[in-house]
Amino acid sequence: MIYVMGHKAPDTDSVIAAIAEAEFLRQKGIDAEPVIQGPVSPETQWVLDKFELDTPEIMTSVAGKEIVLVDTSEPSQLPDDINEAKITSIVDHHNLGGIKTAETLHITIRPFGATCTIIAGQFQEKDFGIPARLAGAMVCAILSDTVMFKSPTTEGKDRRTVEKLSIMAHVSPKELGMEMFRVKSNIDNETVQNLLARDTKDYECSGKKITVATLELVDIKPIKKRLPEIKAEMKKNHAGGRSIILLIVDIIKEGALMVSYTDNDKKIEKMFMGDWKDHEAYIPGIISRKRQVVPILNRHY
Fold this sequence. Notes:
Elements: E1 2-5, H1 12-27, E2 32-36, H2 42-50, E3 57-58, E4 66-70, E5 86-92, E6 106-109, H3 115-126, H4 132-145, H5 156-169, H6 173-184, H7 192-197, E7 200-205, E8 208-217, H8 221-224, H9 227-239, E9 244-250, E10 255-261, H10 265-271, E11 280-284, H11 289-292, H12 294-300
Parallel strand pairs: 1-2, 1-4, 2-3, 4-5, 5-6, 8-9
Antiparallel strand pairs: 7-8, 9-10, 10-11
């Protein structure tokens, strides 16, 4: 059995990519099963329910198992015992992480907006069929990761893939995307801890660990009234030794409210120019953590 998994704090692309890659491997005659490293977000659960797909089982230890990685190759985003697993392949759309393997493996990394775009291409290359329900979920995954094509990570391949998958699934990408992002934007009943953990990734920049969390909302006004409790939680986390940046992305206005509690907030303020006050600033034009935030942190933090 080969287990297909994405990163910790799984987002929609990570979860659906694991399901899609497992289906692709099964069509190749390989016994494969998708797994996740933790609970799914409300958005992802909505996608799974809408297209009647089972939520993958949670797996946090992979020692002695054969693993296919999707949507990440960053060790900090993988199980602690990942070095005790046999990684057979990686399918990703991020920069190549620092993972090391004992054996050669298949690696497919493409600069697309979503991992599901790459996997859809794998199906096409082999002339394999994509089930309609899976095709619909893959549309959601691509729209989610590209922020409905507003992210600078978006490529023409992402748009063309969504067009093809939408026909297979008999869905309207625009209507589906807006419905999905309305679900993502519903934060009324979410705890501050859940909001900060919803879409978070850990990185190592200049030898220091830093967490970058993202909230993508149709309108950021409702969350502003919760900023005091969000900041209090971030301050508590930083006091415990954790550097954290939160990006609250306004999908419609295409900018982000950035909140920073790190070991060097003054440096963060210089890297991301804005009217900083009380650990926060609105930065116009920032939508993508992967393309617009993490590379700057890697170069200058």
